[in-house]
Amino acid sequence: MEGYRPETELLLQLMRAALCRPDSALDWMDGCSAPALAEQVEEQSLVTMLYPTIRGQAGGAWEALAARLKPVYDRELHRGLMQEYEIGALLDDLERDGIDCLPMKGWVMRQYYPDPLMRSMADFDVLLKEMDSQRMQKWMEARGYAPDHIEQSVHDTYRKPPYMNIELHHRLMEEGRLRRQHTAWRENCLASLWQPGFRLEGKAHIYRLSDEDFLVHHLLHFYKHFTGSGVGLRPLADLYLFLQKKGQTLDRAYLEKQLEALRILAFARRMAQLAQTCLEGQRLDKNARLVVEYLTHTGIYGDRATMETARLFQNEGKTIGQSRRNDFFSRCFAPLETMKNTYPRLRRAPWLLPFYWAVRIGRIVFREPYKLAAARRYQTQSRYDQLQEIYRAAGILGDAR
């Protein structure tokens, strides 16, 4: 895999060993820095996945890496165990109180890992069939959770120190993002959503998605972050393990119909191929290396530079100058649903939207000029061209359209 930094190559070897060959003995690579590799492992949120493998290697450099990561591993292991207890208690209470719900994302994906604690989670996402924000606020507060963002367009957020972050979802995906993908797809296109046959065994109010619908949602979420601020390598591991377990039994015709409607079929195919290539040690071609370098660079939570450049593709024009102008106007004149999140009064008085647009413009121009400065710094022709090449390699532009 010529062209990689040694830390990236060793990171991929560690992922392969942890997920596929846990007893592998790995050689430390010449030129690899233990502090730089430790930073990468943390930025990718892969500590609980990789630390047991790192700890099992022999040699001074491996020992230095393990020593650096051990405090992080201990903390993340504690977080994972606490999450298991808290989430289990919440689901028991939702079932007991007759609240129809559907756990999503990492909580479900972790079951496909050799050990669920290998797959860390920042939060717990659960979709509610009938989301009443005021009722659920009282329900969550009775369980020690403090509201963070309430009555949002997609989910309400609750926190309980030191580790618990809960997102109660009104819906699977925000409407605005789907519109930007030029698709009329809606959540009710999913065949298994709230169907009695997809209740968890022995449960009356806890549901699951079919394997096909779960994969559709995973890929849609992957795409959202890939075309936002970046997303890291972990979704590739998720995808690989899921397909290893379920790939032979999936309804491919249904799956492709959904992904085509969402306009992410080419992206889905390329990410599935990339996941297999990376985790089975195959040779990566130029496009695959470009995407892996992008995922490695941005980390699991992305970065500001990537986010600002990505906005040019959401507000595209014929030239980069037009894209920048379109981006400025989209910041100033955000749609009503977005504005409601920032200015809650608009939920009761949507006719005040023009007034709050003026307020928003004043804030952007006079109180937050650093955001415009960041946009100018990152929205350059060279960065635009680079991200365009990455999007083409990932199946987002070109034949993906």
What does the average pLDDT come to? Answer: 92
- Strand line-up across the major sheet: 1-2-5-4-3
Radius of gyration: 22 Å
Low-confidence stretches: none
Q: Which architecture of the largest domain would the CATH scheme give at its second level?
A: 2-Layer Sandwich
Helical proportion, percent range: 55-70%
What do you see in this structure?
This protein has two domains: 6-302, Beta Polymerase, domain 2; 307-400, no CATH class. 56% of the residues lie in helices and 6% in strands. The protein has 18 helices and five strands. The chain has a five-stranded mixed beta sheet. A hairpin with a 3-residue loop joins strand 4 and strand 5. The mean pLDDT is 92.
Topology:
Layout lengths: L5 H15 L13 H10 L3 H9 L4 H37 L4 E3 L2 H4 L14 E5 L4 H9 L4 E4 L5 E6 L3 E6 L5 H6 L30 H16 L7 H13 L5 H10 L3 H15 L6 H13 L5 H11 L5 H13 L3 H7 L10 H15 L1 H10 L2 H13 L8
Parallel strand pairs: 2-5
Antiparallel strand pairs: 1-2, 3-4, 4-5
Helix pairs in contact: 1-2, 1-3, 2-4, 3-4, 8-9, 8-10, 9-11, 12-18, 13-14, 13-17, 16-17
